[in-house]
Design a protein that fits this description.
The protein is of the alpha+beta class. The protein folds into two domains: 5-152, Four Helix Bundle (Hemerythrin (Met), subunit A) (Up-down Bundle), CATH 1.20.120.450; 161-237, Nonspecific Lipid-transfer Protein, Chain A. The protein is 51% helix and 10% strand. It has ten helices and six strands.
Length: 247
């Protein structure tokens, strides 16, 4: 089990509060506007965030009982149907929904017996120990807060979130490139070495920027990230490389 679980839980709860604050300031018209996720309104993002919390709660309650249940019992189809149903609600009801879902998962965190945290859970991405749901929730909240497109950007991500996430996501870069090109990442405000740094050639594409902007691009959010990145190849400006989806 993660030794820093209390700190992780504190960070996840703080992220919840920030995103709930953003959600509470939106009108019905603003809820219906397009988010940064293709095909999803802001209401869809919040509905997904709520259903994710409920799935985490379901898995953790099962872990307390020593059982294994699916995060989304009906699979991807039921998950999407639940998101669509919630996203269609008026803003007031969407906000009530997300607040209640957040309260439920935080209540389970507070009451988890210590011996339940290492137990397996059947998450949407595969089996993992229960304590990892806190990490997953922190990640979901920070990334989807940016997706709301209401003024919270990668520049607002807590430094500790960026420091944990970027080394995890950077190794996925090679497998997600869509073109025949080698990309080097240069972090301008952290000491982090790109996987191919020792073998850089003049033909490599160099993507340079802050750790948060690079992370934003690597998790598939190129629109807000692009403003904080410079891309060059053989000394000339170059388009930001396209990436396959990050999972």
């Amino acid at each position: 089990m993660a030794a820093d679980l209390p700190e992780l839980m504190y960070a996840a709860v703080a992220s919840h509060r920030r995103m709930l604050g953003s959600a509470s300031r939106m009108t019905d018209e603003q809820y219906s506007r397009q988010s940064l996720l293709a095909g999803w309104s802001r209401g869809h993002v919040l509905a997904h965030w709520a259903r994710n919390a409920d799935g985490q709660t379901r898995m953790l309650l099962a872990a307390i009982r020593g059982e294994l249940v699916a995060q989304y019992p009906g699979g991807s189809a039921q998950r999407q149907a639940d998101i669509e149903a919630s996203a269609a609600l008026p803003a007031r009801l969407v906000l009530e929904d997300v607040r209640a879902a957040v309260e439920r998962v935080e209540d389970v965190w507070r009451h988890m017996p210590p011996d339940a945290w290492p137990r397996p859970t059947d998450a949407h991405v595969g089996t993992r120990p229960a304590w990892m749901s806190v990490w997953a929730r922190w990640r979901e909240t920070e990334i989807h807060h940016v997706d709301l497109d209401v003024g919270y950007t990668h520049r607002d991500w807590p430094p500790e979130f960026v420091d944990v996430m970027l080394p995890r996501v950077l190794p996925t870069l090679d497998d997600r490139l869509t073109g025949e090109v080698t990309v080097q990442v240069r972090v301008t405000d952290r000491h982090l070495v790109s996987p191919h740094a020792a073998a850089t050639t003049a033909d490599d594409v160099i993507v340079r920027g802050s750790a948060s902007a690079l992370l934003c691009w690597l998790v598939g959010r190129p629109i807000p990230a692009a403003a904080g990145l410079t891309v060059r190849r053989s000394g000339q400006a170059w388009p930001l490389p396209r990436l396959r989806p990050w999972a």
